[in-house]
Amino acid sequence: MTRIAALALVAATALSQPALAQSLGRELSFDAGLGVKYSPEFMGSDNLDASPWLILRNADADRGKDDGFSILPSLNYVGKRDAGDSEDLRGMEDISRAGEIGVKLSWRVGDLTSYGAVRKGFGGHHGVVGELGAKYRFEASDKLTLWTGAELGLGDQDFTGTYFGVGEGEALADRPEYNPDGGAYIARISVEARYEFMPDTALMGRLTYGRLLGDAGDSPLVETRSQPSISIGVARRLNFRF
User: Fold this and answer.
1) Environment class of residue 213 by beta-carbon count within 10 Å: exposed (0-12), middle (13-18) or buried (19+)?
2) What are the UniProt keywords, alphabetically (predicted)?
3) What is the mean pLDDT of residues 167-174?
4) How far is residue 54's CA from residue 180's CA, in Å, rounded to a whole number?
């Protein structure tokens, strides 16, 4: 487990303890856990590789309330990119692990939720990144929940330059210098499943297909615009009041 994953899980677990929570009539719950993700070894790669999946999903403020608007925290983790791990990255600088923290605004109407998220990166990148999307929830049984979703990933020039740019010192004969602009960099569709095999403990799965767009997709580092991934793990439902 990475240090970032460990710290995130410790913090989430601590927040869920009644001794640390003062009830102000509000409640926040979410799934937190760990799993394995099989995805491109770097953004734009045509080779798939296994990596840790930090599960921080399905956040819900005031569960059971009427449909409407919610403001939730938004967290994400991006794994490191080592040039030595792939011949296709020869001569590129390494990129360390990155964390992202921000807010997510969502609007729920029945089983349909639309959302927008914005986060600031630290560590491997310092850009601003986020998503616009929608998800449809289907309760297949009292234990099995399914979601289908579509979203557009957005990043500023700092973000796209970090993962899709080629600096002057990194350029080769077959890899020219490249400075991508920010904007929409990927479109994704997904199917997710959550099976609660024990009270507040669930098996999580996610299948995603992404397609790189714009300047990101045109990068000389990109071997294929298609970016599929499959993830599976176990998560605990954490609840706390404030």
Assistant:
1) middle
2) Cell outer membrane, Membrane, Signal
3) 92
4) 29
